[in-house]
Amino acid sequence: MEPDYIISWKVAGIALGLLLTLATALVQPLGVSTQFVVSDAVVAHKVAPEFAESNAYLSKYGEKEDWGVGYGWMLVLGMFVGGGVAAMLLRKRQPQQDKGSMPSMWQARFGDSVVKRDMAAFGGGVLLLFGARLAGGCTSGHMISGISQLAVSSFLFGVTAFGAAILMAHFLYRTRQG
After folding, report:
1. Residue 27 near residue 67, CB atoms below 8 Å
2. Fewer CB within 10 Å: N-end or C-end of the chain?
3. CB atoms inside a 10 Å sphere around CB 73
């Protein structure tokens, strides 16, 4: 039985493409992880300008008017608010799980501890943000904006991210024989 979604994935994809085109035309391509670096750099340039200028990473950000200082945090906030609104609107349309919203696949492999699930999600988010900065951009920056601009680094990022995700899923959810 196919899920009954409010918006099909095709319509959502077209809407995302149009939003990306508009954002790129009006401001610049979308990306989120840089916002954290920009914010750190802005604070560092105000509090310890010598340190910020001597740091090869922070010296690239924070001095000039960077779109991320204002618009970037609005994008981050919009992700939280939009995700929350979508969750509330679509709550009744979600497939039923055994224990709240915890996937049965997770429960079968790791148990039903909500704390363990939350810690794993938080740890995964930290690793994702670290990897995003190491790769020079996050999934929204590379896979949505970068690939749409045909950036080779973004294609490499996409292949690597999906490859790593597939390998990790096989590792985490492998079935034991015997």
Report:
1. yes
2. C
3. 15
Packed helices 114-134 and 34-47: angle between N→C axes, nearest 10 degrees? 70
3-state DSSP assignment of residue 55: coil
* Residue 100, phi-psi category: left (phi > 0), alpha (psi -120 to 50), beta (remainder): left
Q: Say how far apart CA 35 and CA 33 lie, in whole Å.
A: 5
Taking alpha carbons only, the member of 19, 16, 63 closest to residue 40 is 63
Compute, in degrees rounded to 10, the torsion defined by CA atoms 14, 71, 75, 124: 120
Residue tagged 């096989």 (tokens): 170
Helix/strand/coil percent split, the chain, to 5: 70, 0, 30
How many helices (H) does the chain have, and how many strands (E)? 10, 0
What tens digit of pLDDT does each residue of 116-145 get?
Answer: 988 998 998 888 878 877 777 777 777 778
61 vs 43: CA distance, rounded Å: 11
